[in-house]
Amino acid sequence: MKMAMQLAMQHQRAGARPCRGWRAGGRPCIRRRALESGNGSSSSPSSSPSSADVVSLLEKKVAVLGNVSGSDRGFGFDAELRKAVTTSVEDLCAGCPAGEAKDATGTWRLVYSTNFGPEANPRGGSRSQPLLPLGQVYQRIDVEKGRVDNIVEVDVPLLGTIELCLEHDLRVEGDSYVITFTGTKVAGSSFPNVLDSLPQALKPPQQELSSASFVNAYVDATMRVSRGDRGELRVYVK
């Protein structure tokens, strides 16, 4: 619940006040759209989310983080706990508008993924558990430059923490982010077999699976939920 309390404090600073400005073409920015959607409030540019809307959204976000707390990003959860996460995420995303790609530019820390755990079998792989201790996992998105980098920290005995950067080109198609793997950079060491230690979902893809897509089902200043084209669900925070 520590993560949930931190989110509440962040939301009070970042989410409880109106977001900055409007997008080109008169569309409201992501946080306001998310707060106005599905609550019966007016969608005119002059309207603002009510205090009840803000509190309701905050409660849903805290519920998601409370459910993923202690999951070790999904490695430690069984089917029942995974179902609780999915239910709370669906509740959070229920009022979000569809059909428009949400700008998710920034560096996001992964806190939950359905790719991790005993039932996961991503991209046809057979192993979801890492052979070496896995540190933080980040996704760095730059929509303007058309880049998505998955950054993985791995603790290697005698060598310390190794940072891997799996680089991707990005193009936006409708509401989907389509990414194509372009290469891997290893910072801090030339240890050759560190990639083999990663869980299947974090390894560089095989040639036939070098492209994938995901939709950002929910985005605001502190949380992002993405759904992949192979059924995977991921939750990120800043």
Automatic annotation (TrEMBL):
<feature type="domain" description="Plastid lipid-associated protein/fibrillin conserved">
    <location>
        <begin position="64"/>
        <end position="235"/>
    </location>
</feature>
<keyword id="KW-0934">Plastid</keyword>
<protein>
    <submittedName>
        <fullName>Plastid-lipid associated fibrillin</fullName>
    </submittedName>
</protein>
<dbReference type="GO" id="GO:0009536">
    <property type="term" value="C:plastid"/>
</dbReference>
<dbReference type="InterPro" id="IPR006843">
    <property type="entry name" value="PAP/fibrillin_dom"/>
</dbReference>
<dbReference type="Pfam" id="PF04755">
    <property type="entry name" value="PAP_fibrillin"/>
</dbReference>
<dbReference type="InterPro" id="IPR039633">
    <property type="entry name" value="PAP"/>
</dbReference>
